[in-house]
Amino acid sequence: MPQTETPGTEVAPRPRLRWWTELPLILLVYGCYSAGRLLARGDVAGAVDHGLAILRVEKALRLNAEHPLNRLFTREPWLGVPADFWYASLHYLVTPVILVWLFRARARHYRAARTWLMTSTFIGLIGFTLLPTCPPRLLSAGHGFVDTMAQYSAYGWWGGEASAPRGMGGMTNQYAAMPSLHVGWALWCGVMLWRYGGTRLTKVLGVVYPLVTALVVMGTANHYFLDAVAGVAVMGVGLLLAPLVLRAADLVRTRLSRRTAPVTQGTGSPIVSAGCQTSAGERIPRQRESRHDPAAGPDASPSDAGEGAPAPAR
Q: Nearest-5° angle of CA 247, CA 252, CA 255?
């Protein structure tokens, strides 16, 4: 016996993702990311205090990866210049490329991966807002850091103020060091390459890319070690929250689809014959009353029962 679903309990089919709906969503999140960095400038004195506090914590924990890396990148241009290009460009190139690759080649996993990335990005914006932090390169020279982006600015398109193109440094928030979304996004890219790449090369790249990015952000004096740790933590929290965000989005979509769905009258079988019945051998149904209709009376003729009915006794 075929199984039937109870009306009203059917699960709405998940709509197929389209690039013309995904692209505006991605651009919206990136716009919020950029606007959040601009709006969360904070006061310079507070940002410097936060940066110095991070240095004190790292000193207490005997963590000092930034200074030796920064000295190495400053002393060796063959390391410092590629590192600056890495910091200024790959953050904005690799992540979109992997998103497009997932959308086209791993569509089954794209929606969850995209939600994880977006959720983590919004958490990072909260960090920029609540904890504006001066990066090592903007601390006074007495703290021993050199801004490699300014030192090697003649090699690239960026200026001495930030990794933005020349003349646009004032349009970025240079005090958004905590957490490091450079590291967070690189970790997301690495996980996607490791899980869905399918080849040994992509797995190697999945490990190398976030590790090198972490070294680059410290060597160029753009982030502290704890900024990188915070970037990893933000991605972890985003991973935990992503299923909840997906369920909430599905719930909203289901409710909206129910509101726009056409209303059907009644739940039972509609009466389409209006009493017309067709007996065996009949081409056109005839209107007849029920045998049990009291108005028909006991002597009602059974001729309406159809050609197959038995003849009455004489």
A: 125
